[in-house]
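Appendix B. Chain record.
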Amino acid sequence: MTQVVNWIPFDSIDLLAEAACQRILTAAEKAIAAHGSFKLVLAGGTAPVKAYQLLAKQTLDWSQWHIYYGDERCLPVDDAERNSLVAEQKWLNLVDIPKNQIYPMAAELGAEAGAKHYADIVAAADKFDLVLLGMGEDGHTASLFPGHVHNLDELTHAVHNSPKPPADRVSISAKALSNTQELIFIVSGAKHDAVNAWKNKEDLPVTHLCPATGVDVLLSI
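Structure tokens predicted for this chain:
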């Protein structure tokens, strides 16, 4: 399937974060009205975390929110570099989402065990309502890196040779991340080269995400 991209630029990272927050709230309202739950996949990175901080200030009924992670570093659960720890500190621990509806990756068990464990969680989730992703300067997203080869039918991947430390990670696959009602990339910082390569349809991990509804890229670069 060919990726369809809608580029939405912002003048600052704060405006980008506000827009991302609003998109999350709108998607939640729509999903809960449609089928009684909201299944959201979180991204790491500066701009997404700013959006999470805005969500933490919202007064909502959080009881039908279900939180997943696109990827995780194979580090101890209390390591400051874990995506889950940052999301918990900035948002999830500050609101009343039921703890059994937050699904961290067991990446502390190692890449293979963590990926196997999370594949069952992704399978049970089936289709997500909203997937948030960032993009690195090399065009990677989640822990899907340029030049890496994975089984395309897997729901999750064990990653052993990340070009950025730590080498070992767990990532939801492009196939599973594309199985969503809505997919939003949140891109900020010095990413001009990667964005230009993406627009030129070069073979980057970000180009492998092809949900039926297309891709929105919110960017401030």
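Further analysis of this model is presented in Appendix C.
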